[in-house]
Each structure stands twice: as C-alpha cells, then as structure tokens.
C-alpha cells in the first residue's frame, strides 16, 4: 500500500545557505562567545551538509525501505504495514531513511502534520463555542491554570492517531495533561464532552488523509488514549512531546494559541510541528488583540479561497527547510503538501528595525527586564506580546526577529512548551539558546533542566550575540 509523501518532495528550491540568509556572513571564530559561535557553526554545518545532499539527490530521494537499520526508527517504518492509518491517495513511501542512511522521519512528519491539522480543527470548534457563549468548558486545575475540553480532546485525539499509525507499543508521549482530574466522578459531564469532541473530530479523519476508528470510541478508550501519554522523556530512545493547547489563556480569550507536537530522539528534537489556528497571514494583525481581528474580518470577510489566518508550520532537524501550510478549510480534503510554502527567518540585523516578542503575562516573563535589555541593545519597536508558541512561529516566519522569555526564579520550563518551536526556528535559519548561549537540553525528562536564566531565540547570530551580551551586562543588577 502506498504510504506517505516526504516533506522533502514538497519543494525543489534549495538556495545556498548564505544566499538564503540574504548574504549575511557568519563568524565562527569569535573568542568571546565561543560556545555560542560553536553552537551556531554546528547548526550551520549541519544545514550546509544537508543542503548539499539534497541538491545531489533531487527531486526524489532514493527509497531505502528494505534497508534494515538497527534503530528504533525501523520499528516505526515496519509497523506501517499493519497499523498505518494513512490513506491510499499518497505517493510512494520513503522507507524512513534517505539515500544517506539517515532517518528522514518522512512518515512521522506526515502523520504528525495531519494529526496537528485535525487538532487545530478540533480547537477551532471548541474555541468558537467558548467565544459564542461561556458554556462552562473552562475548568480550574489544582495548579490554577485553565484547562479546557480542547486540552483533553486534543491529547486523546493525537495520542489515538499516533498509536494507530505506528502501533501503540512504538509510541511514547510526554504531554501536558494527566488523566486524574478527568477520571473523577465530578468530572463526568466534562468527560462526556471530551468523548463527544474526540469522536466528532476522529469522524473527519479521512478528510485529513488518516483513518478514523471503525466505531465511535467509548469512554474507556478515550481515557486510555489520554493516559498513554505518560512518558517522562529522557536521554535515550524516541518519544513525542505534545502540548495539546499551548497558551491556554490565549485560547480561552479567543486569541492566539498553538498545538505543539515534537518528536524527540536521544534527547534531541528531530521534528517540530506547530499548529497556529489564529495566526494571521497579515503580520501586522499579530499585534492586535484577536477580538479586533475578528471585527475586521467581519467587515471584510475573506473569500473562501483566501488564506486569512491559521497555519501549521513544520520542520525536520537538519533538513535546512521549514514549511507552513494553511489549515484545511470547509469540507476540503487534505492533499499533501496542501499548498505548503517554505518559511524563513527575517534578514533584519539592525536592532532599531527589529521586533521582539515575549509572553503576554508578566508573571510568565519579566517585562521590566526585557524592556531594559531592549533599551540597551537599541530595540526601538514596541514588544509584540503574543500568547503561546506562536512567538516561535513569528520568528520562523520572519514576522519578528527576537523572542525572549525570563521566567521567575524557580520556574522550570517544560519541554513541550519549546521543542517544536526550536526545530522550526533553527531550520528556518534562526538561533535558539538559553541566556548562556547553550542549546536547550531536552534530554533530562519533562523539564529543560539546567536552563541558564532564560530563553533567547533570534533570526540571526548578530542579534542573538547582542542580546546575550546585554543579559550578561544587566543580570546581576536585576531582581531576577
Ligand atoms: N509562572 C510561569 N512562568 C513561566 N512560564 C509559565 C508559568 N506558568 C506557566 N508557564 C508556562 O508558560 C506557557 C505560556 O507561555 P506564554 O509564552 O504563552 O505566556 S503568556 O500566556 O503569553 O503570558 C504555559 O503553557 P500553557 O499552560 O500551555 O498555556 C506554561 O507552560
Ligand atoms: Mg504550554
């Protein structure tokens, strides 16, 4: 059975790396920022290698599906014949390895993008319900964060789809929601809503090129799918990191939020998929509250064909490319690559022209500290405050140049809040590190252990270096 189409085949243009960055040179030998430069150089070298390979093997990479590599990815590839949920309308499979014997994760990427498309579809329906009437779908968790039917439903749906596609034995997921609060007797109505929402969504699976269940899932199957997401991550093997609704506050306020799914192998994120259902295609609308965007949209309704808002961004580590495709509209069927376009980071290096983004809530990141940094680096524009990993999407798409997050002391960042965004920004040409210039460490379990002060993502090395310097200069006098 034909299985899937590689993302590598969706585009055939591979501009040279430096040309792709608008000709910006990159210094790899800075003595002052050696670790930073080494990091950036290694990102650059990996990208250059990959591009050379792709140029040599275009347009279709040779399939090595019979090659039996002793790696966990083989089990994913081999599980496809028995439990693949991909429909028949797709191209020849890539065997899980490209012509250079490296896993290309094409099948995982294909399933992940489709699953995130479905999750976005689900979230849009729930968010519309929240906006039209405050109908009790917002719950309070013990940790006081807001959680919705969408959180649990997305987690159940994505978990079920991944398990069906790769076999539940082969799928390990780290995800935000645990099943305890949903299993309580007092949550019976909520659970019923989740089961209905999941089944409504899975009934649409064929439109997204995936197979849904033969019969509607029962309560126990939905709970089982949620509770399967019980991995604790770690340094070895393969697991998925899922944030079913990232930016819960944005979601319940009818604003920006994201569905984030990453595949992590041996502690490194290798695939990143980010669904951004409210991401506006006109970048100036990112800075407006979504309510305003909705009013404007009503005044000038988009035509059915126009791409007004909502996308899924994705990238494979080392692929040297990042992509964005629109959310599936109306009753259409997803035909890969679904009008995907390449995305890349901005070429702006001048701080005076750069836009920085940060969390909306000052309890999540110190606005006063970033304002000081902005001043010292010479950033002049107002910060773009956006909920969720949409900030990573904005950097990858070139709509902003800098993302900074400095959480209060003691807060431990979770891997699912960053993994997908890191891969996408890096493959779109940007840099992501902690404030010490080191890569984020996804190998230590569910937290980004050892994170130095904060997170800094930039379109290019020069801006990144300036921010790191500014953090060093002002950290000791800050109250953080
Ligand atoms: N106190 C504190 N400090 C820092 N970070 C925190 C904190 N509390 C939560 N979180 C995590 O931040 C995620 C939301 O980040 P955002 O960048 O979207 O923040 S904001 O809502 O725009 O203010 C949010 O993700 P979601 O829970 O998925 O919304 C949390 O994982
Ligand atoms: Mg989150």
TrEMBL record:
Coiled-coil intervals, chain numbering: none
GO biological process, one term: phosphatidylinositol phosphate biosynthetic process
Keyword RNA-binding: no
A single MF term (Gene Ontology): 3'(2'),5'-bisphosphate nucleotidase activity
Binding site for Mg(2+): 176, 243, 246, 417
Database matches in PROSITE patterns: IMP_1, IMP_2
Catalytic activity, as annotated: 3'-phosphoadenylyl sulfate + H2O = adenosine 5'-phosphosulfate + phosphate; adenosine 3',5'-bisphosphate + H2O = AMP + phosphate
Chain residue ranges for the region called Disordered: 69-93
Cofactor(s) for this UniProt protein: Mg(2+)
Low complexity: bias regions: 69-85
EC identifiers of the protein: 3.1.3.7
Pfam families named in the record: Inositol_P
Record's keyword terms, sorted: Hydrolase, Magnesium, Metal-binding
Domain of life: Eukaryota
PANTHER family: 3'(2'),5'-BISPHOSPHATE NUCLEOTIDASE, PHOSPHATASE
Similarity-based family: Belongs to the inositol monophosphatase superfamily.
Protein name per UniProt: 3'(2'),5'-bisphosphate nucleotidase
């Amino acid at each position: 059975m034909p299985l899937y189409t590689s993302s590598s085949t969706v585009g055939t243009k591979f501009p040279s790396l430096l040309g792709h960055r608008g000709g910006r040179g990159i210094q790899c030998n800075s003595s002052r920022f050696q670790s930073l430069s080494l990091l950036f150089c290694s990102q650059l070298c990996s990208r250059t290698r990959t591009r050379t390979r792709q140029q040599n093997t275009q347009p279709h990479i040779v399939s090595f599906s019979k090659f039996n590599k002793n790696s966990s990815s083989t089990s994913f590839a081999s599980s496809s014949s028995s439990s693949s949920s991909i429909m028949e309308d797709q191209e020849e499979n890539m065997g899980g390895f490209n012509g250079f014997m490296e896993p290309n994760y094409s099948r995982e990427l294909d399933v992940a993008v489709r699953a995130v498309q479905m999750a976005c579809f689900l979230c849009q329906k729930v968010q519309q319900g929240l906006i039209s009437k405050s109908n009790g779908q917002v719950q309070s968790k013990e940790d006081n964060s807001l959680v919705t039917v969408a959180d649990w439903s997305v987690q159940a749906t994505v978990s079920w789809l991944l398990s069906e596609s790769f076999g539940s034995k082969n799928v390990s997921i780290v995800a935000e929601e645990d099943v305890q609060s949903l299993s309580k007797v007092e949550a019976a109505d909520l659970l019923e809503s989740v089961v209905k929402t999941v089944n409504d969504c899975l009934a649409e699976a064929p439109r997204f090129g995936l197979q849904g269940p033969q019969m509607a899932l029962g309560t126990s199957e939905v709970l089982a799918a949620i509770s399967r997401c019980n991995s604790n991550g770690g340094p070895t093997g393969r697991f998925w990191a899922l944030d079913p609704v990232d930016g819960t506050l944005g979601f319940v306020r009818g604003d920006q939020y994201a569905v984030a799914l990453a595949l992590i192998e041996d502690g490194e994120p290798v695939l990143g998929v980010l669904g951004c259902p409210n991401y506006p295609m006109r970048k100036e609308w990112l800075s407006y509250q979504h309510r305003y965007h909705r009013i404007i949209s009503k005044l000038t309704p988009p035509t059915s064909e126009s791409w007004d808002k909502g996308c899924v961004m994705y990238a494979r580590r080392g692929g040297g490319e990042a992509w964005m495709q629109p959310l599936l509209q109306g009753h259409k069927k997803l035909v890969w690559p679904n009008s995907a376009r390449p995305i890349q980071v901005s070429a702006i290096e001048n701080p005076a022209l750069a836009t920085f983004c940060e969390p909306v809530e000052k309890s999540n990141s110190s606005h006063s500290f970033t304002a000081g940094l902005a001043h010292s680096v010479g950033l002049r524009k107002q910060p773009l405050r956006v909920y969720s990993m949409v900030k990573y999407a904005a950097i990858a798409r070139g709509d902003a140049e800098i993302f900074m997050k400095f959480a209060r002391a003691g807060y431990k960042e979770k891997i699912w809040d960053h993994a997908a965004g890191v891969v996408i920004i890096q493959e779109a040409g940007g840099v992501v590190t902690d404030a010490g210039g080191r890569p984020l460490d996804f190998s230590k379990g569910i937290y980004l252990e050892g994170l130095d002060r904060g997170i800094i993502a930039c379109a290019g090395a020069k801006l990144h270096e300036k921010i790191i310097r500014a953090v060093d200069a002002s950290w000791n006098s800050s109250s953080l």
